[in-house]
Amino acid sequence: MEGDGSDPEPPDAGEDSKSENGENAPIYCICRKPDINCFMIGCDSCNEWFHGDCIRITEKMAKAIREWYCRECREKDPKLEIRYRHKKSRERDGNERDSSEPRDEGGGRKRPVPDPDLQRRAGSGTGVGAMLARGSPSPHKSSPQPLVVTPSQHHQQQQQIKRSARMCGECEACRRTEDCGHCDFCRDMKKFGGPNKIRQKCRLRQCQLRARESYKYFPSSLSPVTPSESLPRPRRPPPTQQQPQPSQKLGRIREDEGAVASSAVKEPPEATATPEPLSDEDLTLDPDLYQDFCAGAFDDHGLPWMSDTEESPFLDPALRKRAVKVKHVKRREKKSEKKKEERYKRHRQKQKHKDKWKHPERADAKDPASLPQCLGPGCVRAAQPGSKYCSDDCGMKLAANRIYEILPQRIQQWQQSPCIAEEHGKKLLERIRREQQSARTRLQEMERRFHELEAIILRAKQQAVREDEESNENDSDDTDLQIFCVSCGHPINPRVALRHMERCYAKYESQTSFGSMYPTRIEGATRLFCDVYNPQSKTYCKRLQVLCPEHSRDPKVPADEVCGCPLVRDVFELTGDFCRLPKRQCNRHYCWEKLRRAEVDLERVRVWYKLDELFEQERNVRTAMTNRAGLLALMLHQTIQHDPLTTDLRSSADR
Amino acid sequence: AAEEPGAAFSSAWRREEVPEKPNYALKLTLVGHTAAVSSVKFSPDGEWLASSSADRVIIIWGAYDGKYKKTLYGHNLEISDVAWSSDSSCLVSASDDKTLRIWDVRSGKCLKTLQGHNDYVFCCNFNPASTLIVSGSFDESVKIWEVKTGKCLKTLTAHSDPVSAVHFNSMGSLIVSGSYDGLCRIWDAASGQCLKTLAVDDNLPVSFVKFSPNGKYILTSTLDSTLKLWDYSRGRCLKTYTGHKNEKYCVFANFSVTGGKWIVSGSEDNLVYIWNIQTKEIVQKLQGHTDVVIAAACHPTENIIASAALENDKTIKLWMSDY
């Protein structure tokens, strides 16, 4: 029955009410009164109820009591002891300083660990100290009793040690308030200058009951400890050499403290220190590393939390291998629901994955004393941790030697048989070159036309104006027919239609930009692109220069300039004659030079594009050809010919 | 009377008489993968050999000289299968990272990544027109993808166990899929309807299926070291080929039709087995690998066999025969 006397139920007759003297109300307590209106507490063995006032237990005190036995029962049976609760709601009551029964009961209290923190917390040394000294530390598996009724004249901050999934709140470690600053977890903390990668509580603050085994800290004299505790999570670099020393100092301090409270200290951690053999964290442990730590490789004393050599059999390679398999199988089984066993897979991928991860760890884990020898040729120094070489130089030397050894042989092998891809490549190159040739000739053709056109235009300009001829255009133009402008949509007279549309188009086009980031740099091309720099968009205008409505305005036409457009008969045949009308008036051949020039330029641009494409192709083929027998390719791959006569597997007919 | 399978194959006779046995001999060994090779395929034009591996890369070799050509990088996990398009310009690869990738062989770039499967993608193939890709996966489904857009057109809830092989027939109208549940199903490629189910063996996983070149027969391989040739329209098993060992891995098997008519398959006893299609007897066993021969491919025009082995070996061997 819970000794929670706050709700006193009407009790059964206890042993004190020996005489049912016919009174209506049953009587209780040592005072034998039937008064039940005050606070009462019930004995868990005799079930008698006692007034709090009579036995000097307040309600508050009782709140913290879990099991309570009356004085008589306790005297009769020395084994019965009052058990207290260790709850947040625990409060200390300064009034209980008087030595009364509760004090004696307090004597039965377990206060095994003389935690210095706790002493400090409790405030006055004398009272508590005396109390503590009186208290005989008795071995109890259950968590040590807190200082429930410990008097303290001045209340320290009530440390409500919270409980959580990983904190019991009652053990030594949970009671600590400060991080030690020396263990690996502390050193990882930001406040101690660490990288905050591990992110765990201080080792000394890992709850002895509830924390993960590998996080805990055990003083060296205690039970075996899994070495992986001090190892960080797999794949992280191990602590460097400096680290063990400060922690080792700490260890000594701890051991001293531990000595004070001798057996009591040992037992709780031991009880909870059953190392879970093959938990996930332990699996990637390297037994070599463990050996090294045990042997005190870093310093004389070794790490306090790993100095127990009993553990070597615990994690010998065989066990570790088994550990590996366990995890391996577990992971597989997770994936397959029914009987999809791993044998159905094409290859053991998971295994490979794991193996891949293992190897770098293995290298990482070695320490200088038993590191492998550097693989550099002729080098007798130890390799760096995490590497196969003692220095970059050695690595380079080895790589160079390797290349000298293997490469000539590979090159020979390569050249033994004709490379068919090479032949293809060569053919391709031939073709590309031919095409490039043809493109160039086309280009030349274009240039020629360009020049021709210029000549024509020039000549036309030199003609005199003969306005009289053909002043009235032979137009039976229907002036009532209205054409709609393509750009603006307004109806216009067909006679001026061309002129209008050109102007209209230019007007709209000039509002948009069309450019690229790069200026044109083509050798041999006189005038192709407009290339006017637009500072806003940082682009060069890529319209044809002759045509660009944005950047080239139509030049003012002087009054006497002749149109000069070569006249044609039946669209294609040149008559050799030129239009003599003044340019300003000629409506048929409006802008003819511009358009012709543009035509030629466009062709040229096209040919340049084609050439560019061919260059690109050629470049690709060339790089493919060079890379094929490149250093890397040769070193990584090999083709062994078993039959020196048959270098080409094609039957000769197909070649 | 049922048609003899041998007569149904298109012939490419080199000699007048049909020789009894081929004389495949080891010609080239291609070294270069750093992990087990999972699949080898010849390109339809016969120029290249593509090999996929557990080291997450595909390597392309010259088919005739065995020289290394190119490596395709891109997958995050091991690759289980690779297949060529009919014009030999594209490859599709199926990987454990639940995706398929379409590669352009010439440039070596990955054109598209096809995502949609929920588990390892195990097998893949193009259709003869190379407009579709069919893939089978550990998530028990078969998906049909469009090459151009990379979208999944259809998902067939094909089986109740991982799908181990998918193949189009030579017309591109049918898909055959085999799975560990012991069934072989034939689907209409256009509609996705299941046309036929062959219960190859109730308890035994089907590790490989393939249409014959003329499309009338299916070759199935089960994990009891048996290869069977079925007339699927009638659902009858016509021939059975045994003698090799296949109890664990999904080993490829092939029809060799360039010279004599053979069935070629890898085996878990490190040999390549060749059977006469008609007589079902083993006509040759090719020795040379040091690990399970998981893949064997036949050249489309020459009498060349390519075989690949697992991680103990990691090489691809090219064998040539006169007939």
Summarize it.
The complex is a heterodimer of chains A (655) and B (323). Chain A is mainly α.
What does this structure look like?
The complex is a heterodimer of chains A (655) and B (323). Chain A is mainly alpha-helical. Chain A contains 18 helices and twelve strands. In chain A, the strands form five sheets. Chain A has a three-stranded antiparallel sheet, with no helix packed on it. In chain A, strands 1-2 form a two-stranded antiparallel ribbon. In chain A, strands 3-4 form a two-stranded antiparallel ribbon. In chain A, β10 and β11 form a beta hairpin. The relative contact order of chain A is 0.05. The N terminus of chain A is likely disordered. The mean pLDDT of chain B is 91. Chain A: Transcriptional activator that exhibits a unique DNA binding specificity for CpG unmethylated motifs with a preference for CpGG.
Main attributes of the structure:
heterodimer; A: 655 residues; mainly alpha; three-stranded antiparallel sheet; two-stranded antiparallel sheet; 18 helices; disordered N terminus; B: 323 residues; mainly beta; four-stranded antiparallel sheet; 1 helix; globular
